[in-house]
Design a protein that fits this description.
Enzyme I, Chain A, domain 2, binds phosphoenolpyruvate, Glucose Oxidase, domain 1, eight-stranded parallel β-sheet, 22 strands, Beta-Lactamase, 5 domains, 16% strand, binds magnesium ion, single chain, 28 helices
Length: 756
C-alpha cells in the first residue's frame, strides 16, 4: 500500500502546537488530554492514545481521543501484551495498516477499538527506559509515512520530558518503568576489583539532558549546529595533535574514527533534517542519537556496535558543545558516587574525588588492566564488561555494584537496597575483624610460615602497610608516579617518593621495580612510537636498556633515597639473562659512581628480576648465580604463556591460571629456584585471590605480594589450610587434560575446611 502523508505540512505544525500545549499553565493530565486531541487532528487519525508504564510493568491508558473515555485509567496491559505492549517491550515503533491481523493483536472490549484497522505507535523513551507508548489508529487500512512516524517519535520525546518531570506519575514509579529492548534492571559483568557499592550514577562522559526542544528560529539553529560542529572538530583535532606527540597513542585509532564521524555527511544531514522538522539543534542531535541507539541494540556484530557507540559518544560531545558545557565528573559529585564509563584509564580514575567514589562500572575493561589494579589499591569495587551500561543509565540513578557476584542492579527496589546495605555492614565487620587479626602470623595449620606483602605504587597505598599487617612491599610499581603526573618527575620528586615509602616501611623490606612503561601503561608526557602489538613491544626494561639515561636517572634517585638502608631493585619484563645482566651492570656502575662522589651507599643492595616472560624460565640455571631474588609476574606471564592479551575482554575467561599447563610451568620454576636457594615470590593478581593463593602455596611458594585488601582474606585462608594434604592432592592434578582445575580445587577447599 502506497504511503502518502495526509497532511504534508503536519510535522512542523504539530511541533509548534505541542510547544503551546507544553507551555500552557494547565495541570499535566489536561496537557495529556489536549495533546492527544492535537495529535489526532494533525495526523488526521480517529484515535490517539497515550499509555504510560506504571510499577510492575503495567501499561495504563492515560489519555485518549477516539477510544471510550471511560477506559482511561482503567485499561491496563502488561508490557509485551498486545501491540501496545509489544511496542513497549521492544522499544521500537510499529506501523501496521491491518493491525487486527497481527498475531499480537489483543482486543480490549472496554475500549471499543474493534472498528479500527490501522495502528501506528511509538515508544516514549527517556534515558534508555520505555516510559510509555503513544499511538494513533484509523478505521481505514492506512499506512503512515516514514515522516509521520518520525514526527510521532519527536512528539514522544516531548512527552517523555513531561512524564520524566514526575508530575504525572510518582518518579519512583517512573524509575521502575520497563527498559527499552527489554533490558533487565540487573546486568551481569566481570569482577575487576571486588567489593560492594551503593551509590548514584555519575556518567564519566555525562549525557546531557536537553531541555529546550522546540526551535524558535530554524535558520538560527542551523547556524548553531555549524558552530558546534566546528568546535567539535577542532577539539578532536587537538586531541589528535596531542596523539601525534605520543600522548594518547593508544587512543589514536578511536580518535581518528571520531574525526571521521564528525565529518560524516549522512549523520549531519539527519540532524539538519530534524532541525528542519522544528527541533532545536541539541534536540535534533538527540533525536538522531535515539535512532542510533535503537540500531545499536539490534546489531550483534561487535565491530559495528563499537562504531555505533562511538557515534553515540560523539553525539554527547556535540550536545555538550551546543549547550556550552564541559566534560568531566565535576565538583558536585554525590556523596556516594558510582562512576559509569565505557572504559577508563588509571589516571582518569584518579581524577575523581576518592572520598566520594564508591564504585566503578565499565562497559569494557579486564581484571589485569591497570585501572583495575589502581581501583583495587584504592579499595574501589569495579565491574567490567557490562554491555551497553552507558546507554542504560542516567546521571543520579541509584545503582548497586555487586563486585562479588559480578552483578549491577539498576534502580534497585528498596528491599534490594536494604539487602545490600546489610551486606556492606557485614563486610565492614569482616574488615574490622581482619584488622584485629593483623598481628596474627600467616601460618598454616601444619605450621608453614607464609610471607604476605603488598603491591603498591602511590603514597595512598602506604597506610595499608600498617593496617594490613603485611610483611613489607613485594612490588612497588614506580611507573605509577609517572602515570599520574602531568610532567616528568624530576630527580628530587622521585627520591622524595622513594624515601617516604622506605620511611613508612621501617624495617620491612620494599622491592622497587624500575619503570615498567609501555603497553597499557601510558605516561602522558612521553613520546612513544606507535606499535602494532604494544604488549609485545618496546616497553619496560627494553626501553630502559635502549634509553639507559632514563634508567640511570631513576637508579640515581633510588640510591639517593637509601643511604645506610637496604635497597632492593627489581627489573621488569626481563626476557633473558643477558638483559638482566645488562641492567644489573648499569646499576653496579651507578653504585660505584655514587660511592666515588662521596655519597653514603645503601647498607645492602639486592638485585632481582620479574619473571613474566616465559623464555626466562628456560634460562634459570644461567640466571641463578647472579640474581638475589625473583618475583613471578603472573599477569604478564599468563598472557605470554597462553598468547592471550590480558586486556582483551573476549579472552578473559578463556584460560585459567588454575590449569594443568600454567600450574606445571609455575611448579617447575618454583622448584628450580627453591632448589638453588633463590627467594621467589609472586606478585600478580593471582596472589591476592584465596583459591589461587592456596594453590600457589601448594606448589611451594612461601611469599606472595598482593593488593592490600587481599591480605585479610588470604591470611584467613592460610590459617585454615593444611599444606601437606594440598601438595599431595595437587600432584595428582597437574597431568590431567582439564581446561581448568578451579572446580576440583574449590571442592578440595570445601572438603578440608579451607576458608575461601
Ligand atoms: C605482572 O605482570 O604480573 C605484574 C605484577 O606486573 P604488572 O601487572 O605491573 O605488569
Ligand atoms: Mg607485568
Amino acid at each position: 500500500m502506497a504511503a502518502t502523508p495526509i497532511n504534508p505540512a503536519g510535522p512542523r505544525l504539530l511541533l509548534r502546537r505541542m510547544r503551546e500545549v507544553m507551555a500552557s499553565p494547565q495541570p499535566p493530565q489536561q496537557k495529556l488530554d489536549q495533546m492527544v486531541r492535537v495529535i489526532a487532528n494533525n495526523m488526521v487519525a480517529e484515535v490517539c492514545s497515550i499509555y504510560l508504564v506504571r510499577a510492575g510493568d503495567i501499561l495504563e491508558l492515560f489519555a485518549t481521543v477516539g477510544l471510550n473515555p471511560e477506559a482511561v485509567h482503567k485499561t491496563n496491559l502488561r508490557v509485551g501484551e498486545g501491540l501496545i505492549g509489544e511496542i513497549a517491550a521492544r522499544g521500537v515503533p510499529l506501523n501496521l495498516a491491518d493491525a487486527q491481523s497481527h498475531p499480537n493483536f489483543a482486543y480490549r472490549p472496554e475500549t471499543g477499538e474493534d472498528i479500527y484497522h490501522s495502528l501506528m505507535g511509538v515508544p516514549v523513551i527517556r534515558g534508555g527506559r520505555v516510559l510509555g507508548v503513544l499511538a494513533v489508529q484509523n478505521v481505514t487500512q492506512r499506512l503512515y509515512t516514514e515522516e509521520e512516524v518520525e514526527a510521532m517519535q519527536t512528539v514522544a520525546m516531548v512527552l517523555a520530558e513531561l512524564v520524566g518531570s514526575g508530575e504525572l506519575i510518582d518518579p519512583s514509579e517512573v524509575h521502575e518503568g520497563t527498559f527499552a529492548q527489554g533490558h533487565p534492571p540487573k546486568i551481569d559483568g566481570v569482577v575487576l576489583a571486588d567489593g560492594i557499592a551503593i551509590g548514584q550514577v555519575v556518567l564519566h562522559e555525562p549525557r546531557v539532558q536537553v531541555t529546550r526542544l522546540i526551535a524558535e528560529d530554524e535558520a538560527e539553529e542551523g547556524r548553531r549546529l555549524d558552530a558546534a560542529l566546528g568546535e567539535l572538530r577542532s577539539s578532536l583535532d587537538n586531541l589528535l595533535d596531542i596523539s601525534d606527540l605520543g600522548i594518547e597513542g593508544d587512543h589514536f585509532e578511536v580518535l581518528e574514527t571520531y574525526r571521521m564521524f564528525a565529518n560524516d555527511r549522512g549523520w549531519i544531514e539527519k540532524i539538519r533534517d530534524a532541525i528542519r522538522g522544528g527541533l532545536t539543534a541539541e534536540a535534533a542531535v538527540q533525536r538522531v542519537q535515539v535512532d542510533n541507539r535503537v540500531r545499536m541494540a539490534k546489531v550483534s556484530d561487535t565491530y559495528l556496535r563499537e562504531r555505533l557507540s562511538d557515534l553515540d559518544d560523539l553525539a554527547n560531545r556535540l550536545i555538550r558543545h551546543l549547550m556550552g558545557l564541559h566534560s568531566g565528573g565535576g565538583p558536585d559529585m554525590p556523596e556516594h558516587t558510582v562512576v559509569v564509563a565505557r572504559n577508563l584509564g588509571p589516571t582518569e580514575l584518579l581524577d575523581y574525588d576518592r572520598t566520594r567514589l564508591r564504585g566503578l562500572i565499565l562497559a569494557e575493561g579486564t581484571p589485569s588492566s591497570h585501572v583495575a589494579i589502581i581501583a583495587k589499591a584504592l579499595g574501589i569495587p569495579v565491574i567490567g564488561q557490562v554491555e551497553g551500561i552507558v546507554g542504560r543509565v542516567d546521571p543520579g540513578d541509584q545503582i548497586i555494584v555487586d563486585a562479588m557476584t559480578a552483578q549491577v542492579f539498576l534502580l534497585p527496589t528498596q528491599d534490594v537496597v536494604e539487602l545490600y546495605e546489610e551486606a556492606l555492614a557485614l563486610r565492614e565487620q569482616r574488615r574490622l575483624a581482619y584488622a584485629q587479626h593483623r598481628h596474627l602470623p600467616a601460618v598454616t595449620r601444619d605450621g608453614v610460615d607464609i610471607a604476605l606483602l603488598i603491591n603498591a605504587g602511590l603514597l595512598v597505598d602506604l597506610p595499608h602497610l600498617e593496617e594490613s599487617g603485611a610483611h613489607g612491599i613485594g612490588l612497588f610499581r614506580t611507573e605509577f608516579q609517572f602515570m599520574v603526573g602531568a610532567t616528568f618527575p624530576r630527580h628530587e620528586a622521585q627520591r622524595e617518593l622513594y624515601s617516604r615509602v622506605l620511611d613508612a616501611a621501617g624495617d620491612r623490606p620494599v622491592v622497587f621495580r624500575t619503570l615498567d612503561i609501555g603497553s597499557d601503561k601510558v605516561v602522558p608526557f612521553m613520546d612513544r612510537p606507535r606499535e602494532e602489538n604494544p604488549a609485545l613491544g618496546w616497553r619496560a626494561i627494553r626501553m630502559g636498556l635502549d634509553r639507559p639515561a632514563l634508567l640511570r636517572y631513576q637508579l640515581r634517585a633510588l640510591l639517593a633515597a637509601t643511604p645506610g638502608r637496604e635497597l632492593r631493585v627489581m627489573f621488569p619484563l626481563v626476557a633473558n639473562v643477558a638483559e638482566f645482566l645488562a641492567a644489573k651492570s648499569i646499576l653496579d656502575k651507578e653504585m660505584r659512581r655514587h660511592v666515588r662522589v662521596g655519597r653514603q651507599p645503601p647498607s645492602r643492595l639486592l638485585v632481582g628480576t620479574m619473571l613474566e616472560v616465559p623464555a626466562l624460565a628456560w634460562q634459570l640455571d644461567a640466571l641463578i648465580p647472579s640474581v638475589d631474588f625473583v618475583s613471578i609476574g603472573s599477569n604478564d606471564l599468563m598472557q605470554y604463556l597462553f598468547a592471550a592479551d590480558r586486556g582483551n575482554t573476549m579472552l578473559t575467561d578463556r584460560y585459567d591460571i588454575l590449569s594443568p599447563p600454567a600450574l606445571s610451568f609455575l611448579s617447575m620454576i618454583i622448584a628450580k629456584l627453591h632448589g638453588a636457594g633463590v627467594p621467589v615470590s609472586l606478585c600478580g593478581e593471582a596472589a591476592g585471590k584465596p583459591l589461587e593463593a592456596m594453590t600457589l602455596i601448594g606448589l611451594g611458594l612461601r611469599s606472595l605480594s598482593m593488593t592490600p585488601s587481599s591480605i585479610g582474606p588470604v591470611k584467613e585462608m592460610i590459617r585454615s589450610l593444611d599444606v601437606g594434604k594440598l601438595r599431595a592432592y595437587l600432584s595428582t592434578l597437574l597431568t590431567l587434560p582439564d581446561q581448568s582445575l578451579r572446580g576440583k580445587l574449590t571442592n578440595f577447599a570445601r572438603d578440608h575446611g579451607v576458608e575461601l
